[in-house]
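RETRY 2/3 - previous attempt timed out on the joint model. Re-submitting the same 787-residue input unchanged.
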Amino acid sequence: MFYRQAGDFKSSYREDLQTFALKQDRWAYYALLVVAFLVVPFIINDYWASAVLLPFLILAIAALGLNILTGYCGQVSLGTGGFMAVGAYACYKIMTSAPDLSIFFVVLLSGAVTALVGLIFGIPSLRIKGFYLAVATLAAQFFLVWLFNKVPWFYNYSASGQISAPERTMFGWAITGPNAEAPVRYLFCITIVVLLAWIARNLTRGRIGRSWMAIRDMDIAAEIIGVDPLKTKLLAFAVSSFYIGVSGALFFSVYLGAVEVGEVFGITLSFLILFMIIIGGLGSILGSFIGAGFLVLVPVLLKNVMVNGLGWPTDIAAHIEFVIVGGLIMGFLIVEPHGLAQLWRLAKEKLLLWPFPH
Amino acid sequence: MKGLKAAGIAMVAALTSTTAVADLVFPSLSYRTGPYAVNGIPYADGYEDYLTLVNERDGGIGGVKAKVLECETGYNTQKGVECYEATKGEGALVYQPLSTGITYQLIPKATADGIPVHSMGYGRTSAKNGKVFSHIFNYPVNYWDGASHAVNHILDVNGGDIAGKTIALVYHNSAYGKEPIRTLEELSKKHGYKFTPIAVDHPGQEQKSQWLQIRRERPDYVLMWGWGVMNQVAIQEAANIRFPMENFIGIWWSGSENDVLPAGIKANGYKALTFHGVGSDFPIFDDIKKYVVDAGKAAGAGDQVGTVLYNRGLYAALLAVEAAKVAQEIHGTKDINAAQMRDGMEALVIDNAKMEALGIPGFGPEFSVDCGNHGGPGLGAVQQWDAEAGTWSLISDFAPSDMDVIQPLIDEDSSAFATENKIEMKECA
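RETRY 2/3 succeeded.
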């Protein structure tokens, strides 16, 4: 009744193939962008930025990256944390060795460095598949974390082995460092997120994305119809690692400011991002966002409800939080194994017909 | 639709935390869950119980009630940041995160926000230099002092000559565990011992290969910078390879009851450093029993009173309260803010008369803080575990560390931090 297709006519193929085919979806999307860029920066404070929005946006980029590799190209990776660490350390090294370079380019360059590293670790994917590849990427995870702990050059020989982001500005505004204002950090991240999500969407629905999906669905058939598995898989690894590297660079420089590789970029982070795309929806751009939102926001929400709202002891709240989040994950996956994005798609389909489904 | 909207508003309300500001707020970034909870719980209990005691017995600090805002970090840096952001807007006076990682995280943030951080016996050692780290305090001791205390103890045992001996360091592979390495390297140059660092990765439940290495290389002494479950495992492993316990010395974070009890009688003779007294044989514990435990106001399960880490949490709260009193005096107001609290911490003097008046005579050494020295004199002692009696006892006096070696390192590290972050050195009178 309220959400409908009636009267929404398409007169060209171009219009028919657009991302948001329904007028209402399109308007909702534009409205969301307006709110994100023009409203949120004026009401955001340090707590909202540091505890909620920045981790959500930055992990959404990582989830996008992993979704390209795992969701679209079918290559399971458990090395996400390690690749984010590559992005973070690349960012740190570039920041400290080229202090005058704009932080925006530093972040992109960190992504490029990670893409190269990802390419190297992607080579085994040509020979090994499925769980075996997952184990190979697991090796990457442990190797990279060990490397950044072991070689002092990566952390500029600091006594504690920590890296911390010096202050860098863009257009006179501090983006990193302790003096960066919440709205500036937020705007910096959301700009990158929107840009990367737009690129990802257009990559995945074009020739490249289709070749990834062909490899995912059946690699032998894909090879027979002329998809080069070498190029396709390596490209997926490179693009995915680029996203994950950008995410790692932002995670370190804009969000945390100081990082200790073993603690922040450990195997738990890899699993967290893998869970994000499984819960959000494999092979879905929207799913990456929903999954990141679910796993970042729900724990904070539960904690605030239980500790600040109900006044429970913090340890009980923390334990119950594990139980509830775990239960929700299982619940959602039982109801809809294709993730929350699929749930959303079905809801929309039903809503289009509502209240006269016949 | 309406339901959705209401849910949305509820969600926004729930994500934004609000509490009225009226009391003196002491956030407690504690961890009662995860692999470090075994050490986090007693500390958090001690911290909270002391503030409860001050409220119940004295009616607050100078008449203003103290309020503890507890936030669970799980020893995780990200959650620590979230806790910091969630509590800093509520008038937080001082942060004591009990985590070196979180302290590193908070050093720039809290300095920018003008809130002091007190990392008592942990955190960044060079924060001792108050000229660079204006809002960071690490009195009364720091890790480099600890490293020196351990070496001094070994020197004492060996009659002052340890040339040719080997000392291994089993450390938590993080900023925390890496802190003493520089100092131990410098000290090895001075005293001529051979130094081997051995890393243990978070959380430290698996240390077979590390202790195999120790068994093979047979170092004369093993030092440990461990925390949480890592301590228990290390002591158990040391017992398994029959490493002589009296040659195994932990930092003060590796010397609580929880760390030695799992190894049972085999842990007898294990040594650890400390910077305060042990046991519950002080008048203040009668007050705690009367006003806090028996009144049913004890934090947590209330079963930790008198343990090493409970005492340390209590000591941390006590120093914070004393600093708040000094701040109230300096600024002539009862309702102090974070900036005034900082001034109070910088002018803090703890002497025996004060400790006596507070009901814990001789619990900790005398010290004072000033503008240039945020770390105090760095006095420490050695305690030893008696597994039969199940008690720790001090086996040395509180002695100073080797500042000839440490001070240049502090100056070097803090000035590197100052240049990296473009901090102007503060002038101290």
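Residues 134 and 166 of chain A are 35 Å apart (CA to CA). Closing ticket.
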